[in-house]
Amino acid sequence: MKNNVTRLLVSAIFGFIFGILGILLFMNDTVQEYVLGPKLIEDYFIYVYVVVWMLGFITTVAGLMMIRKIFNKANHNNLDPDELDVWINRTYYRAQDFTTGGLLLSLLTLVVTVTGIILIEETNTTLMLTLIILSIVLLIFSTYAVFYQAQALPKINPERDIPSVDDKDYSDKLLKVSDEGERHLILTGLYKSNQTAQMSILVGVVFLTIVSIATETNQLLAIIVLLAIFALNAFKYTQVLKKEM
């Protein structure tokens, strides 16, 4: 109990210090112009777009290449079955990270494009149309990669009755076909990711509050949206627990 109180006090002190530093940082005119204001997009739009688009394309391709590597190694390998299984699982989840990252970056590319159209007064219509098309193409490509990666799991393990990702009871069926060790890993990962998501949302609320105070801008709508997501996530978690008891 004493250790918990000490950690709570230390966290509160550091939170207060970083909060004050954050307010001072975002009160800086340069930070307000380039981080919170339109200057970054107005001055460096095409550079920001190219960097984000290329990162999205590269991460998506990397994820697809990892899935292909799994297929090739699984079909032509003399490794011990247990070692091969560990390698396949690690590579598969690494590929999942890349395809998910590619999807998020493709969405960011589209957001950057729309923001540029809104903020830049004199825009080249042909250029903007080309960038929009490229953004949509990347979004479609990254979405395909996410579904391809998800649907690859049954093909990687053909001897197991792994459900298709579009099955409405996918989560329940996947748990049923998993052994005890796999269930432990899945549930541990889900629990930790849930805790991380809740903590990240609260940090986001604090961050927006600091920005709102430092810049005297109204961030209430964004804060309400984050708190609504937090509430939905928390209530869904407890609802599932009560249902399974």
Automatic annotation (TrEMBL):
Keywords: Membrane, Transmembrane, Transmembrane helix
The keyword Membrane is assigned to this record: yes
TM helices/strands, residue ranges: 7-26, 46-67, 98-120, 126-147, 220-238
Superkingdom classification of source: Bacteria
Annotated protein name in UniProt: DUF3169 family protein
Organism expressing this protein natively: Aliicoccus persicus
